[in-house]
Structures are given as C-alpha cells and as structure tokens.
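User: I need a structural model of DUF6924 domain-containing protein from Streptomyces gamaensis for a docking pre-check later this week. Nothing fancy, just the predicted structure tokens so I can convert them on my end. Input:
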Amino acid sequence: MPNEKLPLADAPTNEWAAVLRTTADDDAWKKVRRTIGTPSSDGFLAAVEYFEEPGLRGLTPEQVLALIPDKPRCSLLVVVDDAAVASSEMSLLCIDLWDEPGRTVRVIAAELWGIENNLSIGNMEFADFADATDHDGVFRGF
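Assistant: Understood. Predicted structure tokens for DUF6924 domain-containing protein:
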C-alpha cells in the first residue's frame, strides 16, 4: 500500500471520515474503535470507514499525506498513530482534505463525532476546530 494512493476517491458519498491505522498496537486500535463507535451523551456518532492495511503501520503523518489521492471523496482523514494511542485520551490526528488540505489538529477519540458530523453537513469548517484546541493543541470539544 505505501506505493499506492489510499482508496479515498471511490466512496459513494462524501459524508464520512476515513480512520487510518498506522499503530501496530492491536489492543489500542480496538479501544479507539470502541470509543469512536460509542454514541455521545446526545446520541451522536461519527460516520467513519476504517482502513487498517498492515503496510500502513509505522507511517509518519507526512508519509500518510503522500498517499492521499488528488480528489478524495471524504473531507477528513483521521490517523490512529502511536502518539494517539500513547495518550490516555487517544488524541487522534485529523487531517483536513478539503478546506485547507494538509492542515492538522488532534482530537480526543470521544469527540471525533463533533468534527465529523459538522464537517459532513457543512455546518463548520476544519479551522473552527483547529482554532479551538486546548493549550496542548488537542481539541476536546466546545
């Protein structure tokens, strides 16, 4: 896979986010998926598609960016990397693919739904989340 583009251009809709596994930690990956799949207190869920090709393990964010197709159908790429799973809050790396392609922000897994939901309906822009991070650069919700 590292010599190819990610399959982000063939999706039937643009109302989803791609969650890409680059960590080798199986237990942490499962925990992240459970957290993303747990509804918020208001019942919101992130619409995501998971990618976990073994050839993607250990890629840096720069290497992941090089794999993004020219016209991705999704607006958001979420990377579950070693930095994310080392954090107790699971601070996932979100990469903007539409508004400011390549701009990043970290978001705790439990708040991914907020970014994905608002981007998919055009209610907010990626910058709204990137500009609302805490002192450590992580978005934890509004």
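Before docking, keep this in mind: The radius of gyration is 14 Å.
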